[in-house]
Amino acid sequence: MCTLRTLLPEFFGKCLVKEEYRRYHKIAQSVVLPKLTPDHYRVYVAKYHNIEWEASEAILLFRQTICLAEYIKAQDYLSGFVLVGDFSDANLMNYLPKLSILQCKQIFNILMEGFGMRVKQIHIISKSKLVDGLVMFLKKMLSAKIFDRLKMHKSIEDLYEYFPKTILPKDYGGDERSLDTLQAEWIDVLSSDEYLKYLQEMNAATTNESCRPKDQFSEHYAGMPGTFRYLTVD
Q1: Domain count, the chain
Q2: Which residues have C-beta within 8 Å of that of residue 10, sequence separation ≥ 6?
Q3: pLDDT, mean of residues 193-207
Q4: Could you tell me if residue 225 is inside a domain?
Q5: What's the whole-model pTM score?
Q6: Which end of the chain is more exposed for a tag (fewer CB within 10 A), N or C?
Q7: What is the CATH number of the domain that holds 113?
Q8: Which domain covers residue 57, as residue numbers?
């Protein structure tokens, strides 16, 4: 994790969710649901809205995801994650051309390798005619093993086959608090002085790569998408 913070610093640093992320929260709502699934997995829901945004704003999504992951790592006990990406109200043409496969691979590598996140399933909701383009994007972004866990849905009701309504937000026909309420609660948690102090301490844990012997430099990190590879020329 320390190596990842050093090699990919743009994903880390201060995360002043309440002050600096108001614009992002109009683009997407991303929350971790309060209740676990019956087999003890935590559900992460990201609902994307039909709003114009710039490609440069994608980093806000990635940084808040890291901020959430740091909190979950410190405070929660779970078997892994089920991810839900809801594009039912979004125009995919506002998203696909602006999302970088490189950055998406990097953030997934941080979550999987750095935080040790286990992904049971990924659910995508979209009735767009461009959904095939989204599937191709995800196929390039994800490993074959994770891609095989992808479930595509045309309606919210399809989720009932996989999740009890008791854990789903009201927006999805469930009994849990609404996405607006859950997001507001998460913003308060991630903006608390206690958590920001903890996050600062975690972000300070980096490596001095100049001290790493070249012949011992891990190929896993050297070959990580978006970083660099060592090239020795005699």
Answers
A1: 1
A2: 59
A3: 90
A4: no
A5: 0.87
A6: C
A7: 3.40.525.10
A8: 2-207
Domain membership flag for residue 224: no
Answer whether residue 212 is part of any domain: no
pLDDT in tens, 109-134: 999 988 989 999 999 999 998 999 99
Structure tokens at 163: 């999740």
| 196, pLDDT greater than 70 | yes
43 near 32, Cβ under 8 Å? yes
